[in-house]
């Protein structure tokens, strides 16, 4: 019996360090139109993703190019939660059964029970398709007709400082050369290519990519198999032009066998080098403005939440606002609120949501404040908040401000505040309390003894339980 108790306590104590860390698999909606992705997400609480997980292949679905959605919830500097999502495109309409599967995340095998998905026809007025902000950006192709080629693509030829530039490196393979060309020494060539693409004057947000998945595209009315080797958004930090050099990729090319009977013996591999075209992107300085060296650049809007518009003195009101849109969301600074003596504002909690999709990075950053009114009156919150940014498409500065007004009622009890000095019982106790210093270690000992008593009571309870059974 005693061994059982020791074993139970050992397991119980062993689970304590991982209590705050959880990993789970979340599946997307069970009913989707065919133009919508089905998703498999990994949610991590209390830890970060160490190694890219291998998402499973699902029957009836095509695993899309990796799409990562990351959500971070911060309390101070502590990371609370992450979510990583893989998209799957349905190949046909119908009902599909996803069998139970497992994914290994940070060395831990996580199970999913599977599900059943109903894929319906294309829906009318699909808001995602109609939204021009989510349409893929147009790219420039530099390959020759009928030949495979390496292409570095940039979304714009001219941008403002701080504006996002989509950069991607693709290899386009013709159907005629499919089977004759193979990637060569791939893992050693790619890091060198990435190093040449990286711009020293840019903030770089790279798409996490663990697999090179092909897709089929049409280029000048010709069908190509396209391999995405690199993708990122670059945000220039100053008005220095971006220079992308010509990149070289070595491939293995096999000669076409003339005699099918001895084809395997006659296949002779040789190295063939593909070179992309060098490109320059001009970076313009922002127009004159007192804050142009620090102002965020992007297309943003404000989303506000105010717990209530009417309150009383010393009653806390929760107020949050999110900056939503397309831009360098991760670099958005915490806004500096104006100092109003009548409103006491505490430092915010910050929640960040990034979405990498359709060659763009968008998302939101929410700041949640606690406000304690100290004086009665009406306080338009626009007096607190001014979020100034530069819109590169409209080529102008804009300011986001609050639309709420906080109405505070009540009176300031100044007499009570003064009287507390002389008549409050709390202050009277000061005259009678011992003023000798107390060691801080006494509290640690008290905490230790309390824990021992709790463990002793728990052990007695378990002993009585096993004895009765």
Describe this structure in words.
Helix content is about 15%, strand content about 40%. With about 475 residues, it is an alpha+beta fold. The strands form nine sheets. Strands 5, 6, 23, 25, 26, 27 and 28 form a seven-stranded antiparallel sheet that branches. Strands 12, 14, 16, 17 and 18 form a five-stranded antiparallel sheet that branches. Strand 30 and strand 31 form a beta hairpin.
- Shape by Cα distribution: extended
Overall pLDDT score: 79
What are the low-pLDDT stretches, counting only 5+ consecutive residues below 50?
9-19, 73-77, 124-137
Tally of strands: 32
In helices, the fraction of residues equals: 10-25%
Tell me the strand percentage band.
35-45%
Distance between the termini: 11 Å
Class inferred from helices and paired strands:
alpha+beta
Number of helices: 7
The Cα radius of gyration reads: 31 Å
Largest sheet: 7 strands, antiparallel
């Amino acid at each position: 019996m005693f061994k059982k108790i020791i074993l139970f306590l050992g397991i119980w104590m062993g689970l304590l360090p991982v209590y705050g860390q959880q990993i789970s698999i979340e599946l997307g909606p069970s009913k989707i139109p065919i133009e919508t992705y089905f998703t498999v997400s990994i949610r991590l609480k209390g830890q970060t993703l160490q190694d890219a997980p291998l998402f499973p292949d699902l029957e009836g679905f095509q695993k899309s190019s990796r799409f990562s959605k990351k959500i971070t919830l911060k309390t101070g500097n502590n990371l609370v939660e992450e979510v990583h999502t893989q998209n799957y495109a349905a190949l046909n309409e119908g009902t599909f059964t996803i069998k139970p599967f497992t994914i290994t995340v940070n060395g831990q095998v996580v199970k999913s029970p599977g599900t059943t998905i109903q894929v319906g026809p294309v829906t009318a007025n699909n808001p995602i398709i109609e939204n021009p902000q989510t349409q893929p950006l147009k790219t420039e192709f530099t390959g020759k007709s009928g030949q495979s080629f390496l292409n570095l693509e940039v979304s714009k030829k001219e941008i403002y400082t701080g504006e996002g530039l989509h950069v991607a490196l693709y290899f386009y393979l013709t159907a005629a050369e499919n089977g004759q060309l193979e990637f060569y020494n791939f893992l050693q060539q790619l890091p060198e290519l990435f190093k040449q693409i990286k711009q020293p004057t840019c903030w770089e947000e790279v798409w996490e990519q663990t697999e090179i998945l092909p897709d089929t595209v049409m280029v000048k009315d010709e069908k190509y198999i396209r391999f995405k080797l690199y993708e990122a958004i670059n945000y220039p930090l100053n008005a220095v032009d971006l220079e992308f050099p010509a990149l070289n990729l070595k491939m293995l090319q096999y000669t076409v066998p003339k005699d099918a009977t001895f084809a395997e013996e006659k296949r002779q591999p040789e190295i063939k080098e593909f070179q992309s075209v060098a490109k320059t992107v001009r970076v313009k300085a922002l127009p004159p403005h007192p804050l142009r060296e620090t102002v965020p650049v992007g297309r943003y809007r404000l989303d506000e939440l105010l717990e209530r518009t009417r309150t009383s003195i010393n009653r806390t009101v929760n107020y949050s606002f999110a900056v939503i849109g397309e831009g360098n969301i991760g670099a958005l600074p915490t806004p500096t609120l104006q100092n109003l003596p009548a409103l006491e504002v505490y430092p915010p909690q910050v929640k960040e949501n990034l979405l990498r999709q359709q060659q763009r990075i968008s998302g939101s950053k929410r700041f949640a404040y606690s406000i304690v009114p100290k004086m009665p009156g009406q306080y338009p919150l626009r007096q607190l908040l001014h979020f100034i940014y530069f819109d590169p498409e409209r080529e102008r500065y804009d300011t986001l401000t609050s639309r709420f007004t906080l109405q505070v009622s009540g009176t300031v009890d100044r007499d009570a505040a003064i009287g507390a000095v002389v008549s409050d019982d709390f202050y009277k106790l000061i005259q009678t309390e011992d003023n000798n210093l107390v060691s801080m270690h006494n509290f640690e000992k008290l905490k230790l003894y309390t824990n021992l008593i709790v463990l002793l009571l728990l052990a007695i309870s378990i002993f009585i339980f096993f004895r009765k059974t």
